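Format notes (please read before filing issues)

Several people have asked whether sequences and structure tokens are stored in separate files. They are not. Every record keeps both together, in the order shown below: the sequence lines, then the token lines. Line labels are part of the format and must not be stripped during preprocessing.
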Amino acid sequence: MLCRLTLCLLLYLFNLHLASGELLSREHKTYAASERANNLTCYSCSSLEDGEKCANITLNSSREELEKFARSCPDDMRICIVKRISYTTSNENSTSTPKMWSLERNCSSKCEPGCIVIGERTKLYACTNCCDTKLCNVGKATACRRPAASLLLPTLATLLLFPV
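Then the structure lines:
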């Protein structure tokens, strides 16, 4: 019973901090993590400036094309990202296929993967993908994942309702 009460209290405090934004706005690094050198390399380009070559980075691209966009990330940026903005238009009978408006690849200090959809007849899609290995940001940010924090709360609730 005491264990269940403690878990309930921890869940309440976690939700309180999450709602206030404290857990989302702070980053805690151990001494070892802050001393670790950042050797991450990401592709860095924008389809608005670099055109189709940035939009279609694939493993089949020539080595020279790929090296042109590779950049070492600063120490505080340990994530590679791909951000894509696309849109569709629709009428009473049909919806168009998504058309890409812009795509950006870069290093980042934080990332929230997923998509945001805005609009009705003309829908804007703003999607972001994150990864943390060398030159991993090659996709077009089409897959959407739920953030890890949204998966944690149902798991804790299950533990409270069905103790082992």
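For reference, the curators noted about this record: The first strand starts at residue 41 and ends at 43. The chain has a mean pLDDT of 76.
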